Amino acid sequence: MRAAIVEAPGRMRLDMVPLPQPGHGEVRIRLEGCGVCASNLTPWAGPEWMQFPTPPGDLGHEGWGIVDALGEGVGALALGQRVAALSFRGYAEYDLAAADRVLPLPAALDAMPFPGEPLGCAMNIFARSGIEAGQDVAIIGIGFLGAILTRLVTEAGARVIAIARRPYALDLARRMGAAETIAMDDHAAIIARVAALTSGKFCPRVIEAVGKSWPLDLAGELTGERGRLIIAGYHQDGPRQVNMWLWNWRGIDVINAHERDLAIRTEGMRAALDAVMSGRIDLAALCTHRFPLERLGEALDATRDRPDGFLKAWVAP
Description:
InterPro entries: ADH-like_C, ADH-like_N, ADH_Zn_CS, GroES-like_sf, NAD(P)-bd_dom_sf, Zn_alcohol_dh
CATH class of the largest domain: Alpha Beta
Cofactor: Zn(2+)
Number of strands: 15
Pfam families: ADH_N, ADH_zinc_N
Number of domains: 2
Helix content: 25-40%
Order of helices and strands: EEEHEEEEHEHEHEHEHEHEHEHE
Keywords: Metal-binding, Oxidoreductase, Zinc
Protein name: Zinc-binding dehydrogenase
Distance between the termini: 10 Å
C-alpha cells in the first residue's frame, strides 16, 4: 500500500509499504479519507523532541473507510461495512483498528467525509463543559472544534460570545448560532467588550479552543467568579505561564477537556454520529478542503496558514 512518511520538518514522501495484517480483535480498514488535525502542526514543524522519519501513516488519527479484513475474534463487524475508527496511522491507504474502537456508519452518510475522532472530541468537550441554559459562554477560537461547540452550546440555550481572528471564522460562528462575535485582535478591547456584554460579571463558562498562550491568558480574563475555564485547545509547543493570582482570586475551575480513555472517545464518536444524523451538526459546512494523499504536505500547510474559507482539511488515498 501507499503510506505517507514525514521525513523532515515540512517535508513528506509517499512510500510503498507492506499491507498491515489485522491481529486478534482487530479489523483492517481501506481508508476513504483521514482528517488533518491541528495537533499535527507541531510535529510537522520539527520540534527537538520529534524523530524523523515517521512510521508509515503516522500522525493520521481521523480516518474512515471500508472494513477490508477481519482478525480472529471479530464478530460484530462485517466485510464491506463503512466505518469510522480510532486508529493512529491513517495517512495511508489502509490502517488497523481495534474492533471495539470502530463505529459503523449508516448508508445515509455514504460518500460524506466522517472524521469521527475530532467529532467525538467536540462532543466530549461539550459534555465536560457543564453548559446551562441562560449562561454567557465565550468561545475563543472558531475552527473545527470551536464551530461545533458554538452550535452545541447555542442549542443548549446559552448565549455564545465567539472570539476569532479571521472574518470567515466570525461569519461561521454567526451561522452556527453565536449571539455576539468579537475580532481577536486587541486584548484589552476584547476584555472591555465582554465586560460590557455581561454587565461586568464576565462569563460563567469560557472555552479556549486555540492551543496558544495568548488565547489561554485571555480565557482567564473572561472567566467570571466561580466560573469554569475549559481548555479545548491542544497545548504542545511548550510550557504556559498563567495569571494564577487572577485564577485564585476568582476561584476559577479549570477543566482540561481532552479525553485519553479510548472507551470514552469511542462514546464521543457515537454521540457525534447521533448529532450528525439528527441535523445538529452539518458535516458539509465543516469539512471544507480535500487533498489527495500525495499532497498531505499542502494539507498540513493549509491547516497552519488557514486560507480564506478554510476550516478542516482531509486527505483521500
